[in-house]
Design brief:
The protein is of the alpha+beta class. Helices cover 20% and strands 30% of the residues. The chain has 14 helices and 35 strands.
Length: 749
């Protein structure tokens, strides 16, 4: 065998093999000790001329029925390989690189084990080969989750005498390069083996096998905790414009691509120039700058979470092996990405289909379950569910909803039986033509507004809607102009229709269902399949929800990026305001870390002078440290306690420095941290505080501190995650891309 040095290592060529010393220096410089050892081993290894097949071609293998059977392997270049499956045989020759591929005629399902023989200078005999339905099972831990770890596992294992169900587990293996082989063994389903099977795949296979009465093969290529990107091939990223940056990152690291070659060429030139300078410095005994560092953009990926790494190591070798379709359970590791996940799934599905060459094979997947996810915004997960649902726009795809079998404190719901059954229902109806089955969950068909009520009509109900506990449907919310957010809706069932109403929303314009990470709604179709999270209508913007201009008048408008020693309002209408009974503060902040945050808080007027409700500067002589009454709060910030009417709030408006002393004796206020119970201290023209708090729930509503230093000021909505809840010393104003304060009054004249 001739080893291709040029292809393997761009730093070496067989016509210019360096000396051992020089080679060792290059290895040290380019950090390639493993590659060097591999080269030595390959150079010393004996030539392999025997016919060889992929490591997952083993006894008990299941081949896909009703499609041409494609097989492949390796042999001596030009050597003939004879292949026989049962009574069918074919002969092929290995190409110049020693690779051969063969296609046997398609076969009907066969539950009687056949023998598969590969013969050349040696003979490989595989026994008990079945022909049936083959499904690829992939994703993260909920797909990798075993039968042994599922609910009622002892009962399931004891009953697992299903010799026509076979399973193979692909070993965990990331790789920067597409790997052509996988070592794994097909196992027959028995009580001794089934505990290791993917639970989702196994329970799907049980239902399929009982209905189809054919062998079922499961290829389990999954890895807990993994993202979607590592499972995606390069061609998948290339086909999705929204993922250009990922595609560029992959191709930049791929030897032979134009971007790799040009970057390496530039690095070599820079290194050559440095070597010339180094020789001069060596001769003259002078200093020299550090040598150019190896380009980061050319360094191989290192993590199994990096793009293409698991496709290369755990999927690529399977490509071409005929399958019926794929099932997928993954998303927890990408769940904060919203609609970007749809783009990534489009890349994965499109990439797999393109490379397999089987057309748009079925792709059925599981929507991730409700889960706590720490203190995360409750709407992040519903937005991700929406992205998962959007994947159904792609051809021959369908989603299973499992919000009725979740475990809110466990990201791995143990009920994999229902998950597998629901996947099987989709396959039976969509792939195998069981047209009378109701396999899809109920989804919205249409909605209409009429006289303060909103009606939603569903399809796929299987005979009408119902609730699994017999109670009224829960988890519906309505919103309208001026409703100050969404409010729980009363829901009644009328056949395939839900009618919604709410006393808090006289004229609803939009609705949502199960829009919370912990939502376990009770609505389902007659067949028991649950309704997934969804929303509809035209959701009003934040200002429309509070309908502020109907009740309040704008007094001040301040772009907080202009903060400084002099406060210069973009709008100042204070001279025209005479009498008012309420004051409202609208603050809007937008940052990369926290997104768009908005808060409106209103309260009984604490002064009769409109010039004293703005930033409490020393120039204006403004200072308020007091309680205010009848406080209403509306915000889109997660974790912020909102109420239509809090009894009171605390104002800390002053230009002074301040100390942590709880001067007002507010219960639960700290004497050592800056929070909702501080004390103004000299000088009067000092640090400055403009803060509103709800002491009863130990919560800061908003803070604008230290405004005199501009972009180093303290800004925040809600309690600060730092040491001091009121954002003192956070110096974070520069982190916000946009920041704005508007101040309103409710006039009484």
């Amino acid at each position: 065998m001739t080893w291709n040095w040029e292809k393997t290592c761009p730093f070496m060529c067989k016509s210019l093999l360096p000396s051992i010393d020089t080679t060792l220096q290059m290895i040290k410089q380019y950090r390639l000790p493993l590659l060097f050892l591999c080269l030595l081993q390959l150079a010393a290894a004996p030539v392999q001329a025997d016919v060889r097949v992929p490591g997952f071609y083993t006894n008990h293998m299941v081949l896909q029925r009703d499609v041409p059977i494609r097989l492949r392997g390796w042999a001596k270049p030009g050597e003939q390989v004879d292949i026989q499956l049962g009574d069918v045989s074919v002969s092929v020759k290995a190409d110049a690189s020693g690779v051969w591929g063969a296609t046997l005629p398609e076969q009907e399902a066969n539950s009687t084990g056949q023998t598969l023989v590969f013969k050349s200078s040696n003979t490989i005999v595989l026994k008990d080969i079945l022909v049936g339905e083959v499904w690829l099972c992939s994703g993260q831990s909920n797909m990798e989750w075993t039968v042994a770890a599922s609910q009622r596992s002892e009962e399931e294992i004891e009953a697992a005498n299903h010799p026509l169900i076979r399973h193979i587990k692909v070993p965990r293996r990331p790789s920067n390069d597409p790997m052509d082989d996988i070592e794994a063994i097909w196992e027959v389903c028995t009580p001794e083996t089934v505990g290791r099977f993917t639970a989702c795949g196994y329970f799907m296979a049980k239902h399929l096998q009982s209905e189809l009465n054919v062998p079922i093969g499961l290829i389990n290529s999954s890895w807990g905790g993994t993202r979607v990107e590592p499972w995606t091939p390069t061609v998948g990223f290339k086909s999705v414009a929204a993922l250009d940056s990922i595609h560029s990152s992959v191709t930049q690291r791929t030897p032979g691509t134009p971007s790799y070659q040009s970057t390496l060429e530039e690095y070599i030139k820079n290194t050559g120039r440095w070597l010339e300078k180094a020789e001069v410095a060596l001769e003259n005994h002078t200093a020299i700058e550090e040598s150019p560092g190896f380009p980061e953009a050319l360094k191989p990926f290192e993590s199994h979470q990096d793009p293409t790494m698991l496709y290369n190591g755990m999927i690529h070798a399977l490509v071409g092996y005929p399958i019926r379709g794929a099932i997928w359970y993954q998303g927890e590791s990408n769940h904060t990405e919203g609609m970007l996940y749809y783009e990534k799934k489009k890349a994965l599905i499109g990439g797999w289909r393109q490379l397999w060459g089987l057309g748009d094979f079925p792709f059925y997947y599981v929507q991730i379950a409700p889960f706590q996810y720490g203190n995360e915004n409750p709407s992040i997960l519903p937005e991700f569910w929406e992205s998962q649902e959007a994947v159904e726009q792609l051809s021959n795809t369908a989603m299973v909803v499992i919000n009725d079998i979740a475990t809110l404190q466990d990201i791995h719901p143990p009920n994999k039986q229902d998950v597998g059954k629901r996947l099987a229902l989709l396959a039976l109806k969509r792939t195998y033509g069981f047209e009378d089955l109701v396999a899809e969950r109920p989804i919205m068909k249409s909605y209409e507004l009429d006289s303060g009520k909103l009606s939603i009509t569903f399809q796929n109900t299987g005979g009408g809607l119902k609730t699994r506990d017999g109670a009224q449907p829960n988890s519906f919310e309505l919103v309208g102009i001026g409703s100050r957010g969404y409010h729980p809706a009363e829901a009644t069932i009328s056949g395939d229709t839900i009618v919604l109403s709410s006393e808090a929303v006289s004229e609803p314009v939009a609705f949502r269902f199960a829009w919370n990470k912990l939502s376990e709604p009770n609505l389902m179709g007659a067949t028991g399949l649950p309704v997934g999270a969804f929303r509809g209508g035209k959701e009003p913007g934040f200002l429309e929800m509070i309908n502020i201009e109907q009740e309040y008048r704008l007094v001040y408008d301040l772009d907080l990026s202009t903060l400084g020693s002099q406060i210069r309002y973009q709008v100042d209408d204070s001279n025209s305001i005479s009498e008012f009974d309420r004051v409202g503060y609208l603050i809007e902040l937008d940052s990369q870390e926290r997104g768009q945050q908005k808060l409106f808080v209103s309260m009984n007027a604490f002064t009769t002078d409109a010039k004293k409700i703005g930033i409490p500067t020393a120039e204006g002589g403004v200072s308020f440290q007091q309680m205010v009454k009848d406080v209403t709060v509306f915000s889109n910030v997660s974790g912020l306690v909102m109420d239509s009417e809090f009894p009171e709030a605390t104002l800390e408006f002053w230009p002074n420095n301040y100390a942590t002393d709880n001067e007002m004796g507010i219960p639960a206020a700290s004497g050592s941290l800056y929070d909702f119970g501080d004390k103004p201290v000299p000088p009067f023209d000092g640090y400055g505080s403009m803060q509103v708090h709800i002491p009863s729930v130990r919560q800061t509503l908003f803070s604008i501190n230290h405004w005199g230093v501009g972009e180093a000021a303290d800004l925040g909505i809600g309690n600060s995650p730092g040491q001091h809840p009121d954002w003192t010393f956070s110096s974070n104003a520069k982190e916000y891309r946009k920041k704005r304060l508007r101040i309103y009054v409710r006039e009484t004249n």
